[in-house]
Amino acid sequence: MAVRGSSQRAVACPIGRAADILGDRWSLLILRNAMIGVTRFDRFRAELGIADNVLSARLNRLVEADVFTRIPYRDGGRTRHEYRLTQAGADLLPVFNALAGWGLRHTRGADTAEPMRILHSVCGSDLQPGEHCATCGRRVAAEEIGWLRPWKSNEPCAIAEPVEEHGGS
Amino acid sequence: MAVRGSSQRAVACPIGRAADILGDRWSLLILRNAMIGVTRFDRFRAELGIADNVLSARLNRLVEADVFTRIPYRDGGRTRHEYRLTQAGADLLPVFNALAGWGLRHTRGADTAEPMRILHSVCGSDLQPGEHCATCGRRVAAEEIGWLRPWKSNEPCAIAEPVEEHGGS
């Protein structure tokens, strides 16, 4: 699952390697939306207000970095591609949860809505970082985590599951 | 402690606000080095191989975002400034630990050294995300965390403490 694309240099520091892939505002916003189920070009474009060429370049970069994989689908008579998280992509969830925690604590948002919450869907409590839920004690699987984004919806968004990979190269 | 600089927009999503500040490769690399005690312009420049004007722009942006604060010091006859982490800056540690974990798991590094480890200095074991050490059970304070970067040193680097803030504006 290691990244082989040319955009990633084999520096010794894993934070440096992660920064090569994630040190880009648009890539972070695209991946944030992918985490809650966005997969299609048109929807990324509409939700992010990003120019076609910029979005296309970022998606290609994230495919090259093995964070996304391209899956064909039929749209009327045409074949298009959706961008599905690989296991490496899905494993970015703790990074995004940490960014959410930091952003909540140390940046000031619009005052128009309740703040984002990261919920344990099994017991309904707010989750802190770590493997176990501090409220119910269960080991927390990714599919038990929901992002509540009250400025969008009163229902928490489920975290997207990675596409199944079938070995091969 | 909320960010008031013009570089940060008051969007509702805390991940979006964090991405405004952290979605930049150089800023991540500068902050990574600040986490382990780098504070001075010349040392950031030497360790990162970054151009003066780029480094200067990034440092200014991170001061504006209230992640760094500028502290004067005397260098021979001159007054210079060092860049010290604020509490908001120091609280980025879980983000960097998550980036390190992901980079270790999903990117391939140079094969010239043992990989980075995040250690609990009290008991010497590898730390996983979360408030408590899975080995010794203690609640882990930031000052008990060390980053072992074997390609640089066989001794773990202590995590930098934030500068003390004295209220006022």
Give a short summary of the structure.
Two copies of one chain form a homodimer. Helix content of chain A is 35%, strand content 15%.
Describe the structure.
The structure is a homodimer of 169-residue chains. Chain A is an alpha+beta fold and 169 residues long. Chain A folds into 2 domains: 14-90, Orthogonal Bundle (Arc Repressor Mutant, subunit A); 93-158, no CATH class. Helix content of chain A is 35%, strand content 15%. Chain A is built from 6 helices and 5 strands, in the order H-H-H-H-E-E-H-H-E-E-E. Chain A has helices at residues 14-22, 25-35, 41-48, 52-64, 87-90, 93-106, and strands spanning 68-75, 78-85, 117-120, 145-148, 157-158. In chain A, strands 3-4-5 form a 3-stranded antiparallel beta sheet, with no helix packed on it. A two-stranded antiparallel sheet of chain A has the order 1-2. In chain A, a hairpin with a 2-residue loop joins strand 1 (68-75) and strand 2 (78-85). The longest helix of chain A is centred in the middle third of the chain and has 14 residues, at 93-106. Chain A is globular, with a radius of gyration of 17 Å. Mean pLDDT of chain A is 90; it is low at 1-7.
